[in-house]
């Protein structure tokens, strides 16, 4: 009986935590709305965009970057290798918008084991303005992209970010990716922000260039294998905060396969485990798997109906989560519920992968994601 009560209590606690996280995120998030154009005296902004390879929505994301509703901004595209096919797409788009200041820079500055950060160095150093946005090439920028970033900056800000919100899925595994990105990862990031624990996200990052340059410059972001983890620790160390935009920006997904979803989520899990292990450890408890497991243990001990227990737990987890997606204008379809179920089946395996060593692939780059102590152990062992 004690085990039954304990299992029921733990399941209820997890379900309550899940519901509270949705409520907190709900209070932080706004449905997408258009922000009015800025005044003529708005400060100029540099947007540094690292790019690699052609993706399904490359043409559209490039086009969007040249159509922003901001009086003075420049685009700096960074490509590591001159033979990368994305360079042709960038040049073609630049030619269509001759009135928008834009440059294409090549080179690979090896300041870290993070290929994206290495690609950004030349762009950061070439930026002409005091406000700099580091933006991934697959962010679908709305016309008021800069307005949303600048409006989120507060007197105590050290950095403003946006999580990616998955959109336009093509196929079931793309919907699983949406379930990971949106109502799980974005939700918990905004929950953390509501609790005063702002974490950076590398998709879109607005920096005060003088602030970062005075504290080590972009090279300071090489302190961790993930530039957003290094940014979080740097900003917190300065006594400032990471703030999030109220309406995060889209990342169109297109077609995805299981292998791609697993690879991306395993890489991110490993990065979170290495950079923030205390926050990563409880991730095993998110989603429906653990509350359902303990609820079934309690049902077995009390003689409750297993099917009814399962349906109640799944409804308690997924209906509020689905409501969050609907309320904030994120992707939602009847197929999203089974995608959430599959996601939560994957969570324990991804969590376990996060604790294991070994190389991780990032868009053709092999990354050995380790902690400083693990690096030292490898050196001592001759690995």
TrEMBL record:
Protein EC: 2.4.-.-
Keywords, ordered alphabetically: Glycosyltransferase, Membrane, Transferase, Transmembrane, Transmembrane helix
Residue spans crossing the bilayer: 6-26, 274-300, 306-327
Stored Gene3D superfamilies: Spore Coat Polysaccharide Biosynthesis Protein SpsA, Chain A (3.90.550.10)
Top EC class, one word: transferase
Principal place of residence: membrane
Organism superkingdom: Bacteria
Pathway: Lipid metabolism; sphingolipid metabolism; Sphingolipid metabolism
Compartments, record wording: Membrane
One of the record's GO molecular function terms: glycosyltransferase activity
InterPro entries: Ceramide_glucosylTrfase (IPR025993), Nucleotide-diphossugar_trans (IPR029044)
Pfam families: Glyco_transf_21
Membrane topology: Multi-pass membrane protein
Protein name: Glycosyltransferase
Species assigned in the record: Mesorhizobium retamae
């Amino acid at each position: 009986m004690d085990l039954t009560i304990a299992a029921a209590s733990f399941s209820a606690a997890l379900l309550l935590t899940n519901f509270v996280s949705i409520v907190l995120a709900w209070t932080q998030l706004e449905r997408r709305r258009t922000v009015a154009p800025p005044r003529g005296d708005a400060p100029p902004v540099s947007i540094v965009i690292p790019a690699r390879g052609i993706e399904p929505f490359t043409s559209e994301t490039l086009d969007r970057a040249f159509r922003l509703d901001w009086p003075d901004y420049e685009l700096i595209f960074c490509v590591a290798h001159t033979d990368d096919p994305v360079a042709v797409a960038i040049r073609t788009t630049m030619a269509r918008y001759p009135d928008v200041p834009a440059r294409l820079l090549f080179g690979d500055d090896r300041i870290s084991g993070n290929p994206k950060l290495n690609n950004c160095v030349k762009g950061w150093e070439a930026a002409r303005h005091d406000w700099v946005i580091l933006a991934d090439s697959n962010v679908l920028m709305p016309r008021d992209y800069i307005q949303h970033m600048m409006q989120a900056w507060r007197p105590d800000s050290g950095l403003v970010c946006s999580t990616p919100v998955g959109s336009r899925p093509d196929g079931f595994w793309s919907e699983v990716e949406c379930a990971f990105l949106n109502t799980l990862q974005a939700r918990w990031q905004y929950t953390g922000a509501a609790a005063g624990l702002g974490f950076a996200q590398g998709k879109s990052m607005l920096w005060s260039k003088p602030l970062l340059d005075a504290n080590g410059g972009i090279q300071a972001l090489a302190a961790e294998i993930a530039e957003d983890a290094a940014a979080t620790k740097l900003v917190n160390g300065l006594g400032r905060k990471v703030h999030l935009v109220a309406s995060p920006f889209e990342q169109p997904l297109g077609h995805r396969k299981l292998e791609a979803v697993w690879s991306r989520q395993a890489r991110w899990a490993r990065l979170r485990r290495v950079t923030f292990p205390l926050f990563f450890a409880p991730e095993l408890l998110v989603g429906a798997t653990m509350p359902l497991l303990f609820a079934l243990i309690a049902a077995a001990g009390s003689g409750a109906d297993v099917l009814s227990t399962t349906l109640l737990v799944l409804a308690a987890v997924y209906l509020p989560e689905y409501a969050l997606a609907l309320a904030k204008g994120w992707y939602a379809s009847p197929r999203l519920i089974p995608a959430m179920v599959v996601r939560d089946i994957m969570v324990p395996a991804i969590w376990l992968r996060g604790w294991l060593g070994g190389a991780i692939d990032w868009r053709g780059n092999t990354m050995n994601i380790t902690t400083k102590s693990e690096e030292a152990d490898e050196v001592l062992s001759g690995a």
